[in-house]
Every structure is written in structure tokens, then in C-alpha cells.
Structure prediction request, 893 residues.
Amino acid sequence: MKISKVEFQNFRNFRDHCELTFPTDGSVTVIYGPNGVGKTTLHQLFQWIFYGEVHFNKTASNKMYNLDFEQSVGFHKTFPVLGVIDFEHPNAAGVVEYYSLRREWIYQKEQYESKVITKKFRLSKRIGDDWKTVSDNPENIIEQILPSGLSQYFFFDGESMIADLNQKGRDSAKSLRKALYSIFDLDIYEQALVHIGTQSSGTSTVLGKLYLSRAENSTNKDVIIARGAYNQSLKKVESLEEEIERCKNAIARYKAEAQDLSEKIGSNPSQEALEKRRKKARDAIKTIEGAIQREMKSFGATVMANYPYLLISRVVEEAELRIGLKVEDQKLLPGLTKDLVLSLLNEHTCLCGNPIHESEHAELESLLKMFPPLSYKYIYDQFKNSATRWSATYDSEILLKHLEAIFQYRDQIASLQQEIHDIDEEQKQGENVDALIAKRAKAEESQRYWRGELDKFTKELGLQEQIKKQRKKKLDDLLARVGENEKLDAQIQIIEAVRVYYDSTLKASAKRYSETLRHAIQDLLGKMLTSTRQVSMTEKFELSVRDSFGDEAKSEGQFAVVSFAYIGGIFKLLGDVPALRDKEFPLILDGPFSKLDVIQRQNVIDTIPAYAPQVILFSKDDINACFGEEGVKNVWTIYSNAERNVSHVERGYNPEVFSVNGTDY
Amino acid sequence: MTKEQAVDFMIKKVEEIERERLAAHFSIDPTKQKKEVVDGILKALKGVEIDHEDQQS
Amino acid sequence: MELTTDAILKGPIWHNTLEKLVGTVFETQWEVYALCITIGMMYDGQIDTEAMVPADYEIDPHTVGRNVLGKGSNKSLLEFMFQSALVTTKHLELDEDARLQLAFDDKKKPDFNPIGFLTKFANFGIMKIAEVIDETEDVETLEALMTFLNSTYESGANAADDDFLIVDDFP
Prediction:
């Protein structure tokens, strides 16, 4: 199958309706998104639509809807979470048909938490221009098209693989074994072997029961005694096995509890740390309050440096308006002094050499009257000039900058007060770290206790197994001598043969598949790495990669490459399986490109398109250039708001989103 | 039937029973489920008649 | 200008406004006093000091001492204000020449107390200020002051057309 479109609304980060289209011609699609914007959510969306399940980490919210969307809904009202995938899938005759798979969960808003009230899941098929419903419960159909046992490979998370490879890849091996056994029906053989058991495995298995039946049918006294003793041993062994199982479960439970508590302790700041943060915030508020006080006084200083003079200048300017001061009518030339006027009055010739006439003489007389002691008009003139000079300096915004500074300080204080409020809430709501530490210590103590019990029961089991073995041998000898029950013997032989068949088939299949996968991974690694590495894989699918000195790979970069080779290898393996050979599966891969060096990255990207008929890559790193000069043709980019709780997707490549800003892109 | 035929028959029968188990036609309780499977195999085995000569071999 | 007295600032409006502004926005009472004089001059409004005190008001008046008034730049500003007031106020029944002589002849002494004269303007000014900053705190007080000062300056002589403060309106 190939996905042509995904459509969604109100799915976790993605509040608004969104649609992404994908080519089905084999070209790669890249979806870019930095950490935290919803890349993993979008990656998980596909699985939610196909299988109705998501696998988020422990710290993520388990709510499927967008919290912002939920807030906008009225109490008791319903709202949907919607996902649709359109895909192409060939029919038995190889003709491509077009389908649309729609999953919708209807929530009802309640006081504390909105709850799912209806779940809808529908598969439709395009017939001509119409869509016809194929099924309202298409789980089995989807299982045929995209087996859920392999979902973690169709929707591969490279980062998780790296984390597991750091732990010897045990979880990956277990998952892979489970998935492959399920796909190839090997789990049927495995379970058959469990049910068939062995002749010494007691009454819960076929062979065990058959063996005991041989003993039960005999009337020989010795056989009866020996059978009784053997039965007793069997019961003892079975009871010990149950105890051991109980111990193992308890150990696993307490181990998980301790791990969970460790995570909480690690992510939970101690009371001391919270108090430190609180004090820091309080001190910062004090400092800013001081700054506000200084700013207010600066305001006052600016007022005093400007406004008295400005106001006076305006008053003087408008003297004529106010009291009809007429001094304006008579103005002295700048630089004209009383002495100069007096001396001119005593002369008949001006300084320029021209004679001073009667009219000019009269004017000089009137100018003289402007000087003290006759008049102070001249001095007023000077006074007014200096007073009104202030008006030119008026700036209506001179005081505004003080206010703006104070507003900014207030905003900073508000943020800090919010931070203190949040710290207070954290202190109230979060469990006391000391209590968590105590709980963890208790869980570890319980683990130790149950390990002790396990050791005890295991030792005893060993002893009882030996006793059982001896008693069985005695019974076998007696039964052989007695020679009864030929029919039972024949039945035992048949079932033994069946057991051998299943066992050898299982071993051969496991060997074949693990070798095929190993070979495919080795081949891909050879293309991706610049150094030589030897890949080995056990029949349980445990993977290891070693250099020429036999040292295992340890670096995250190498693990990253291995993770790509791993998924490529799995797809190759699926393609080689007869039952799956004609099926096409898409690969939706969240790849750890950041951990690859430049050459590795190019090599990995060169191999990726061949993994599957359709490849959709999620990446937080810019890999556009690895796809040649023209880059990736089909690109989408995820964007998020500052709080990282509302995201959307847009078509196109935007190199600006990769600019490093102290944030992790 | 011969022993070989009986073995072939039982191989198929066991597989059939296991598939039925997977298809959840058996009890949900794992212990009960195991008992049902074992009893089913034994029942199938009981119905197998082996030629007398083959019983000896 | 001869400083013969302190500036006496009487009444609840002076008291409350000085309490609010001195130490937070302005450093000293002198600053508030000087600003209020210029505001009073802008509106050409005067209020007698005794009119600022309601009956049974017992709190002591605030003062701006002669020594503060006579300090360097303070005295220059006071003289500047005095001269401006003399040539612009309607509250003096003097002709133009008499105003100019009184303002600019150093030897001519007014037959009134200059400080008392200026304080009447200040009384008017403090009423205006009290009016705009009443019921404000912190930055809102500054905002109100800023808006008031700018609009007063920009309105110019029209400020005198503002609704005239009725002296009896005590808070």
C-alpha cells in the first residue's frame, strides 16, 4: 500500500485542520520539525489512524485532543479527534484501488477530564467518483494490508533503536523475534512446543501426560510406588516453578517501580532547589522594584529640568494675549546698547558716514526711552528672548521613556511573580523528593528480598529436578521391564516426532531469517560506513556490530547508522518472504540524522529510497542538500507556537527554521 | 495408518489447534487455555489408529 | 528679589500631595513648590494661603525655608518666575511700565511679599495637580502628571479657559 494523503484535526499538538499529501511514485517525502514542535506526535498519528494506538513516552500527556481546542468547547459539549489516511492498494489482480481510512474519537467535555464517548473507524473505497463504505470495523482488513505485528517497522523510530542498541539491543531483538514469529507463524510452532512439552514436564503438557498415563495404567506394585514418588516430585517441581515465576514477576514489578521512581526523582527538583529558585526570583523582584523607584525619581528630575522653564516660556510668549503687553510693538535691534544710542544722539553723522536727519534723530530719542531709567522695555526684550528660547526644546515624549522603562520593569516583575506562583504549585503538587527516595529504597529492598527468594527456590528446584530425574529413571526402568501399554508408547513416539519436527523447523526458520537479516544489514552498513564493521546476529535476532579487532561499536553515531541499516535490512527480509513478497509496505521513518557525520548522512540517504516503495522521512536536521542540487521535491515543515502546544504543518522547505538560536533544531 | 502418516496427521492437527487458540476460540485464562490445547491434542491423538506392525517399530 | 520669608504651604491638599510626591517622584518640597508656581502662572490662578485651610484643620503646614529658596539655582529660578509673573499676571493692577520697572529694576522693591505672591500661584498649581493625581498610584501617577503637564503646555493661554477650580472643593 502507498499513502497518498493524511488529514487530521485536533490531534494532540495539532489543533487546526491539516492535510499533507505524499507522492506514490517512489520519490521520498521529508517532514521537518525540531524537537518539541510535534514531530513525534505526527509520526504517531499514522499508527493511531491505522491501529487506534499510540506509544508516547511516560512524561507525555495521554490526552489525544489538543488542550487549547478542548478549552474552547463548552461544558458537556462533544468534540472530535479526527484522522484520515487515503491510500492506494492493489487488488488480487494487481490493479491499484483507492481507499480512505477514517478514525474519529468523539469526546465529551466533563468537569475534570473530557472522556471518549464514541469511537468510529471506517474504511471506504472509491468507486468511480463516489466513496463507498467497505467496513465500519476494518481492523482485520488493515491487519492484512499492514500487519500490526510489524507496525514498529513500518513506523520506525530510529532514536528508540539507538537507546536500545546501547543496551545490547535486547528489546529490539525481542520485539523483532515476536514480530517475525507472528508474521511467519513461527509463534504457532513455538507454542506447540510448549504444549507438547517433554515426558518429564508433568501433567500440563501432552508428552508429560502421556508419560504419566503409562505409569497410571500399570497394576505393578513397584510401578505404583515409583509412580507415586515421581508424581510427588512432579508436583514439587511444578510448585517450585510457580514460586519462581511469582518471584520473577515480583522482581520485575519492583524493578519497574524503582525505575519509575528514579525517573520522577530525576525530573523532580528537590525542595532545596525549588527554594533556591524562589529566592532568586524574589531577589530579582526586589532589584527591579529598586530600579522602578529610581526611574520614578528620574522622571521627577526630568520634569524639574524642563517643565518649569517650558511653562514660564509659554507664559512669557503669550504676555500680549494675557495682559495686552504692548512691548512687542517696539523692538530693539540685537546688539543695540544705550551707550550707542546716546552717542548717536550727540552726533550729526552716523557711524556709516551718512548724516543723521531729524526723523532719525526722533527715532533715536524714542529708542532711548526703552532703556532704564525711563523704561525697561529693552531689558524685557532680552528677558523674553531668553525665556522663549526654552520653547524650542519642548519634546512631548521626554517623560514617556521613563514610563516605558517602568512598564517593562513591571512586566518583568509579573513574570517573576508567575514563576514564584509556579514554584509554589510545584512544591505543593510534586511529591516530596525525600519521600520518593524512600519509596525507591523500599522497592529496591523488595527486589533484593525477592531475588533472595528466587535464589532459594531456584536452588531447591535444581535439587528437586535431580530427584525427579532419578525417580523418572527408576519408573522408566520399571515400565520398560513391565512392558505394558504399547499403544501409549506408540503415541508417545508420534508426539516425540511431532516435537522434533516443530523444533527443527523453528530452529531452521530462525536461523534462515536471522542470517538473511544479518546479511542485509551487513550489506547496507558497508555502503553507509567508511570503516569496516562486522555484523553478527543470533538466532534470537540479537544484533552486534564489531570492528576488525572484535570491539563492539559504542558510539551513538555508529548506532545511528546501524539503526538505519537495521530498518533497511528488515524491509529487505520482508521482501524475501514468500508470503509477503507481493505486498508493498510504506516506511515512515523518524531518523536520527543529527547523529551522523556528513559522509554517513549522505551514504544513508543514498540508500534510503530503496528500502521501501514509499518512504516518508521525519527529520529535525536539514538534509535537503543530500538529495542533490534540486533537493527534496516533497517537503513539509512543522511549525509551533511559543508554548509548543499548538502546531501546524505547511508545505515547503524553509531553511530559516534550522538557524541555531540556542535552541535545538 | 502408518506411523509416518500418524506423525504427519498430528503435525497438521497440532497446527490446527494452535491456530484455533490464536483465533481466540479458547479460554482467555492462560492456564485453562493451555489445558484445553493439551486436551485437544491428546483427544486428536486418541483418534489415531496405528497399524499394529508400526506400533512395534 | 529679596527673600523675606519662608514659603508656607498650608492645608490638606499640600499635605497629602507632598506626602505622595516627595521622596517618590520629586526629591524635595522645593521642587513641587516651584513646579506648582509655574502651573499657577500658566493658568494665571491664585489662591490665598488661608483659603487652603479648612476649619478645624490641625496638621502643621509644610514650609520651604528661606535658605532653600535662596540657594543658587533655586533663587535664579524664583527670580525668573517672579519676573515672568510680574509681566504677565492679571492679578496686579499695574500699568505696563510699572510692571516692567518692578520686574527689571533691581532697586525697585515691591510693596508686597514676593514669596507670598508666588505662593498664591503655587496654591493654585497644587490644586490642579491634586486633582489629576487623586486616586492614582505609582506609574499611573506619573502618567497623569505627564499628560497634565504636556496638555497644559500645549494649551497655552487656552488653559486659562479651563473650568476654574472652586476653592471650596477640598478632598
Q: What stands out?
A: The radius of gyration of chain B is 13 Å. The helical segments of chain B are 3-22, 30-46, 52-56.
